[in-house]
Amino acid sequence: MTAKIILLVEDNQDDEELALLAFKQAHVANEVVVARDGVEAIDYLFGTGPYAGRDVAALPQLMLLDLKLPKVDGLEVLRRVRADPRTRRLPVVILTSSREEDDLIRGYDLGANSYVRKPVAFDQFVQAVSQLQMYWLVLNEEPPKG
Fold first, then answer.
1. Domain ranges of the chain
2. Which of 33, 114, 126, 144 supports an S-S bond with 93, CB 3.0-4.6 Å?
3. Is the pLDDT of residue 1 over 50?
4. Axis-axis angle for helices 38-46, 74-83 (nearest 10)
5. Which residues belong to any copy of the Response regulatory domain (predicted)?
C-alpha cells in the first residue's frame, strides 16, 4: 500500500509550521508535501515544472488548500483541479483564515469538499487537524481510481 500523502497548500510560513506541528501533535503519520503558492500546487498535482516526471497517478489522498496564495489563488487551483479528470475526485478541504462569505460560497461552487476556518488558538488548530485527518484519511471512503 502506498503512503497516504497530504498536500498542504500554504504560503504563510508561520501557518505552515503551525500546521506541521499540529499534524505531529495529532499523531498524523502521513507524508505532508507543502506547496507554497498556487503554481507549485498545480505543478505538483500535474507533474509539471519542478515536478516534471513525478508519477501523477500517485495523487495525494487529501489537499488542504489556503485561498490567499501568490501567483495563482486557491480558488483558481480548485477550479483547475475540478476541471481535470485525473484530479476531479481529489478531496479538497479549504483551510483558510478568510472570513469572507464570498470565498465560502465560491469554494463550494467550485467543488470544495469542505471549508474550515483556521482556528486561532493552537490547541483548537491541533483538534481541527486531528478531526480532518480522522475523517478524510481514516473514515472517508474513497471513490475508485480513474
1. 10-139
2. 114
3. no
4. 20
5. 5-133
